Amino acid sequence: MTLGHELIKEKIVLEQKIGRNTTQVLLEGDIIVPDVKPDMSVILQSDAKVGIDRFEVSSDRVSFMGRMEISILYLGRGSAKPVHSMSMVTQIDDFINIDGVTRDMWVEVAAELTNIDYKMLNDRKISYRAVVDVSVSCERTEEHDIVVNIGDIPANQLLKTSLAINRRVENRTDRINVSDSLAIPVGKPNIGVLLQTSVTLGRQDVRVGSGKVTVNGELVVTNLYSEQNEGRLIEIVENEVPFSGVIEIEAAREDMIADVTLAVQHVSAQIAPDNDGEDRIIDIEATLGVVAKVHSVENLEVLEDAYCINKELEISKTAIKYPKLICRNKNQCPFKEIVQLPQEAPPMLSILRVSGKPILDECKVMEDKVVVEGIIMADILYVAENDDVPLFSHKTILPFRQLIDTKGSSPGMNIVMDLSNDHVGFNMLSTTEVELRFLLSFGIQVVDERQCNMITDIAFHDIEPAKLGSMASMVLYVVQKGDTLWNIAKKYNTSIDSLLHLNELDAPPKALEQGQKLLLLR
Q1: Which DSSP helix (H) or strand (E) runs through 502?
Q2: Residue 410 has pLDDT above 60, yes or no
C-alpha cells in the first residue's frame, strides 16, 4: 500500500427509526358527586381529555405517566340552580416494550382517547370505562465519516453524486405558559358559577431564526357559566388569547425547517372581581407542551467511485439509509355537514357551542397525491326548548375524505400528517337541524427512505509489475450500451484527457453512441 493520497471526509449525522409501538390502556372507575353538589337528575354533557406528563426510558422499555381529565355537566335534582358541573382526574401509569430502545435515543409518546362510556349508577355516582391508545416512537442518530474528495487526484478521475438529504439538526421539548384576564362582555350577567372552561389551539405561526424557533398563535378559550342571581340562565363567552414562545435551539438557522407540535397540557380558571368589585373577570392560565424538530434539506456531494492511473484502489463502502424529503405542504380544506337531531333529543332553542375533534383513520400515499380519511367527533351544546332539561349535548360522528396534491409522492413512501381543526362555524336551520362548518388543516410531509452505498475509506496499492506489463498498450474499443468515457478510462487505466485527444472528441464530450470506436493508449 502506498501513502500520500489525502482523503477528504465529511461527517454526516442521520436519524434512524428504531421502532414504533402502540398499546391500549383501559381506564375505569367511578365519579362521585361532591358533598357540596346536589344530586344528579340527568347528565347533560360529558367530556374527557388525555395527556402524557412524562416518560422514562430503560433498556427495551418506555414507561409513561399521564392523566385523563373528565368533566361532567348535569341537571341537579331539586336545585334552584339547575345546571351543575363536576370534574375528576385519573392517573395513567403503564409501559410499552420496544426492542432496542435506550436512554440516549429520541423518544416521543402520544396518547389518544379512542372511546369512553358512561353509566349513571345512581343520583350520586357515574361509572366510566375508557380506552386510550398510547403510541411510542423512537429514533437514534448515526454518525458516518464519508469520503467526499481525494485531494491529489485529478477531478475527472473522481465520480461524484449529489444526495438530497433531510438531516435532523436538533429536537427539543419545552413549555409555553399563557395567562390572561378575560372580561365578561357588556350586556352579559355577572358570573355566578363557572361551569366549564375549554381551551383549544387556534392559529399558529412558526418561524426559524438564528439559534431559536419562535412560535406565535392564539388559544380559543370558551367559558360556560351560570348567572349570579337565580342561576337558571346559562351564558357562554369565547375569547382568543394570543401567545408567544421562543425555543432555544443553538444550531437553528433561518434557512432551516421546524416542525412544531403543540398540546394543551394544563388549564386553570378562576373568577375574579373587576374594578367595581363585581365578578366579571376570569383569570385563565394554560400550559402548552412543545415538541420542536429542526431539520435541513441539504445537497451532499459524495464520492461514488474513483480510480488512479497505475494504482489499484481498495474501496470500502457502507450501506447507509437516509431520508429524502419529497414534499412538504399545508392545506386547509372546508368541511360542511347538515346534522339532524334524533327524535329523543329535545328541540333546540339556541346553540351555545359546537366543537369538532378530527381523528385520522387512514392516510394512503399515491402518485402525486395523498388520500386522507377520518372522522370529526362533533359535539353540539345547546339550550333546549324544555324547562326540565335546559341544556343538552348532541354528539355525532362525521366522516370525511380528502384528496391532497403531493408532487413527487408514490406508493411506499412514508408520510407524516399533522391534522387539526382551525375553525368551527354553525347555522341553526330549525329546532332540529343545524349546519356545521369546519376548516380542517392538513400539514403533510412525504419522505422517501433511501439507501446508498457510501465510500468510507480508500486504500491505494501499486499495481504489480507483472499485471501492469500484461496490459495492452493500445486498444481499439467498441462502445457498448451504457458506456461512459469515465468507466472506459477507469477500465483501461488511462485518462479521460487522453481519450479526448486521441479520438478528437469535444470537451466536454457528447454522449457516446453504441458501436462507436475509440482508440486507447496506456
Answers
A1: helix 496-502
A2: yes
CB burial string 445-463: b at 16+ within 10 A, e below: bbbbeeebebbbebebeee
The grid coordinates of residue 320 equal 447507509
pLDDT category at 3 given cuts 50, 70, 90 is low
CB 45 within 8 A of CB 152: no
439 neighbors 422 (Cβ within 8 angstroms): yes
Say how far apart CA 445 and CA 332 lie, in whole Å: 15
**pTM, to two decimals:** 0.82
For the chain, domain boundaries: 19-140, 153-309, 318-462, 465-521
- 30, 121 in Cβ contact below 8 A? yes
Place of cell 402525486: 368
**Cβ neighbours of residue 512 under 8 Å, at least 6 residues apart?**
479, 483, 484, 485
- Which CATH entry fits the domain spanning 465-521: 3.90.1150.10, 3.10.350.10, 3.20.20.70, 3.30.565.10? 3.10.350.10
Separation CA 152–CA 77 (nearest Å): 91
Cβ distance 437 to 426 under 8 Å? yes
- Would you state the cell numbers that stand for residue 277, as one nine-digit string? 368589585
What span, in angstroms and rounded, lies between the C-alpha atoms of 308 and 314?
11
